[in-house]
Amino acid sequence: MSLTIGPYRFPNRLALAPMAGVTDRPFRQLCRQLGAGMTVSEMISSRPELRATRKTRLRLDHAGEPGPIMVQIAGGIPRMMADAARANVDEGAEIIDINMGCPAKKVCKVDAGSALLRDTRLVESILRAVVDAVDVPVTLKIRTGWSRAARNALEVARIAEDCGIQALTIHGRTREDRFKGVAEYETIRAVKSAISIPVIANGDIDSAKKAKMVMDFTAADAIMVGRIAQQRPWIFNQIEHYLATGILVDEPSDDSKKSWLIGHLRNLYAFYGEYQGVRIARKHINWQLGSFPNYNNLKPRLMAAETSDLQLQIIQAYFADRHPLRYDRAS
Ligand SMILES: Cc1cc2nc3c(=O)[nH]c(=O)nc-3n(C[C@H](O)[C@H](O)[C@H](O)COP(=O)(O)O)c2cc1C
């Protein structure tokens, strides 16, 4: 089974969550390669003065990505959101996603994010303005509400459907929860049974079994995976296999993990250029290798490496050391 939004049919029911500072083009490409069927750009502010910055330009770069190109925008002023949606469609966005799910202070203060959930009339104005502004499908990402005392996802979902939103992602926490505690899926299930547009369930999905549990429990059309993909981008393949067969696949080999990481790093260097690429690569190396044995011994050298060649050399040598026999034979 697959997920359909407007005219677009996704290859499966697995989405990579938009994560500012993480889900740049190289990371999205890595996750697509490893089984994510849907990816969304890092959030782009609706404020026009930010549109010309290098950061925003890079966020808008989708060269070589499989479609549909899904761009997330954030903001609290309907007219500005409509303009931003139009501008992004002009730049090639094929689906516009509206962020009302981000609890970050910076985002809530300047660009609204999940703070909007408190004001359902404003939510409605924003959704209508954006849907009216563009001919492409518009989707929405929310939390379950502003706070546990004001869990209004159901109301927001009905407004969204009524405004012409074509899919709704729900993270099973409130804005007040931030990332604390555990995500709950009852609200997502209640929303799914109350509306007829596709619902994507999100929050704390960190294994193939959990993915199936959330899908079965909520009856969601798709699930969205965020933080765990930073460490285990191959989780999408694992989930897809388990959903299709009911069988858990083995952990990928070290060789596979090494070649995915190296491919990802090369893509980062090419995308950001040598200087910035090496720096951005560091956090991805930490995430992807963080649970490897003896990584802490390697980490200081890796973090101090100032060139892409050196970063790659240290990683190659580390993996070679983990396979001394194969290394001996090859050398
Ligand atoms: C570093 C980071 C950045 C995020 N940035 C965004 C964002 O730009 N837009 C958005 O809608 N959600 C953002 N989120 C929320 C995620 O999309 C997702 O809803 C959340 O992490 C819960 O999913 P998970 O438990 O699978 O990580 C961000 C989360 C993290 C950890």
How would you characterize the overall build of this protein?
The strands form 2 sheets. An 8-stranded parallel beta sheet has the order 3-10-9-8-7-6-5-4. The protein has a two-stranded antiparallel sheet with strand order 1-2. It folds into 2 domains: 4-245, TIM Barrel; 254-330. The protein is globular and about 60 Å long. 49% of the residues lie in helices and 13% in strands. It has helices at residues 25-33, 54-59, 78-90, 105-111, 120-133, 153-163, 186-194, 208-218, 227-231, 235-245, 254-272, 274-289, 295-304, 308-322, 324-330, and strands at 4-5, 8-9, 14-16, 44-45, 70-74, 95-100, 138-145, 168-174, 199-202, 222-225. With 331 residues, it is of the alpha/beta class. The structure holds flavin mononucleotide. Flavin mononucleotide binds at residues 17-22, 42-43, 72, 99, 101-102, 141, 171, 202-205, 225-227.
The appropriate CATH architecture of the largest domain is Alpha-Beta Barrel
- CATH class division of the largest domain: Alpha Beta
**Basic shape:** globular
Order of helices and strands: EEEHEHEHEHHEHEHEHEHHHHHHH
As for the CATH topology of the largest domain, it is TIM Barrel
Low-confidence stretches: 325-331
Largest sheet geometry: 8 strands, parallel
Short description:
With 331 residues, the protein is α/β, with parallel strands linked by helices. Helix content is 49%, strand content 13%. It folds into two domains: 4-245, Aldolase class I (TIM Barrel), CATH 3.20.20.70; 254-330.
